[in-house]
Every structure is written in C-alpha cells, then in structure tokens.
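Support reply, case 0932

Customer input (verbatim):
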Amino acid sequence: MNKQQGFSIIMAIFILIVLSLLGSYMLKLSGVQHATAVSAIQGARAYYAARAGVEWGVAKLLNNDSCATSSTLAINNFAVSVSCRNQGISYNEGDLNSNGLADDDFYIYKIESTASYGHFTSPDYVYRHLEITVKK
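Our regenerated output:
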C-alpha cells in the first residue's frame, strides 16, 4: 500500500518546472513588448522632427523669399536635414488680378526633410523622410 511514496514530490517538481518555464516566457514576451513600444515612440518622434524640418523650410521660403539649398538642424537629439529645390519652371494661371500677366507667375518648390537618430547598424536607429511641394 505504500508504493505511492514520493509521487507528490515528483509532481511538485514537475509543477515548479512548468511554472518557471511559463515565467521565463512571460518575461521574454514583456521585454519584446517594451522594445516595440519604445521603437514606436521613437518613430513618432522622428516623424515630428522631420515635419518640423519641413515647416522650417516652408517658413524660410515664404518669409525670406529664398529657398535654402541644404541645412542641417538638431531637434530633440535628431539630426534633421532639410533641402529645398525650385523645380525650375515658371507657371502662369492667367491674369488673376486684371493688371497684366507678369505678376501672376509662380514657382513650384520641393522641400525634403529627413530626421534620423542613431547609426544604421544600431538597434535604436530611426529614420523618417518627408517631401512636400509648395506653390509660391
């Protein structure tokens, strides 16, 4: 009748092993979720840094009447490169103000902004690129 001695200790060890494996799996899963969340936040920051670069380029174009060919900014630890190019063609939509065609000409400008953080080979590397066109 005493043949079942020791069965409860084997079952307890088995349960401890299973619980420790589940715990280690949950710990690993938690780390992956944390890394994904950090990456998503950095991606959003890079997007807004690139957007700030675009808006800076538009402000330079509209306020200074000049298109800065290339500039590098530092925004919240992001390296932001902004470039502006005139597309080289003068457009005319007709006599908009009834005083002749010469002052109704406009140009199309292309503004590009690139925000990056870290180095390409590092795990925390983030890169965003935005392009817009502006009529002036």
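We compared this against your earlier run and they match. Two observations from our side: Strands lie at 70-75, 78-92, 105-117, 126-135. The chain has one domain: 7-135. Please reopen the case if you see a mismatch on your end.
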